[in-house]
Amino acid sequence: MKVTEHIKNAKSTLFSIEILPPLKGKSIQSIYDSIDPLMEFKPCFIDVTYHREEYVYKKRDGGYLEKVSIRKRPGTVGICAALMNKYKIDAVPHIICGGFTVEETENALIDLQFLGIDNVLALRGDSIKTEPAFVPEPGGHQYAIDLVGQIGRMNRGMYLHEDMQDVAPTNFCVGVAGYPEKHFEAPNMFSDIKMLKAKVDAGADYIVTQMFFDNEKFFAFEKTCRDNGINVPIIPGLKILTGKKQITALAKVFHIDIPQPFYEELEKCKDDKAIKQAGINWCIQQSKELMKAKVPCIHYYTMGASEATRAVALGVF
Length: 317
Known about the structure:
Elements: H1 3-9, E1 14-19, H2 29-35, E2 45-48, E3 54-59, E4 65-70, H3 76-87, E5 90-96, H4 102-114, E6 119-123, H5 144-155, E7 173-178, H6 189-201, E8 206-211, H7 215-227, E9 234-239, H8 244-254, H9 260-267, H10 272-292, E10 297-301, H11 306-316
Parallel strand pairs: 1-2, 1-10, 2-5, 5-6, 6-7, 7-8, 8-9, 9-10
Antiparallel strand pairs: 3-4
Helix pairs in contact: 4-5, 10-11
């Protein structure tokens, strides 16, 4: 079932989660172990992130360095298929621009269609750690809007090779990312909303936000979207802060603010256990306020922290 259909049929705010594929060589059992404690809350869908390749330099005979491509967390498509089979639940694979040509993207989408996957989240993806800015794959997409456009054309039966005959159109529900505190590369919020509107106009069916800890910023973002003609469902994404290192790491990596009242609570914590409880309490408070505002769904970035996510769900759903 499409994400938009779940939302349309819902009588109250839905619960959904996002997971990371395990590191290469690890068993999928780690995924099941993290999902099992959350199934009692009946997540309507589970997002599975996609991680592009990274480059490392390995020393070879003669002293020269060889640039080697590795993918630390493969398996997104296989995990989606496994989740659908095991839990009878909709899985939403992330599709990214980085590392794919447009033809490889088309083939990946065909595979997803054959698996009966109805939803995809279309993202540009991050730059490689060794590069200062995002560099598209030769023959690939540079921006998420280009990826959304390709999926939209396939949904209309338009493939890359125009001489194909009797083609079957795909039928994907397309999600895109939104940024309540703006994308860090956008010069201002106005330009960021303008680009988000362009992605919706290109065929995006719903929006999932970047994590945030200040609901007022989400509400302001939502209002700005509506004022600018963005009328698709907007799903807030929440992350539970579970350790001291995350206080600065999340702000640095995701370019988000920790609200002063929350930060003051965190400063009182003497260890990670106390910080985790403070993070759970804050996320419960956020979730209840969002539910009161009748958001269609709350999407939790679990990052493997199923225990904390379960504690929040117990306090909210």
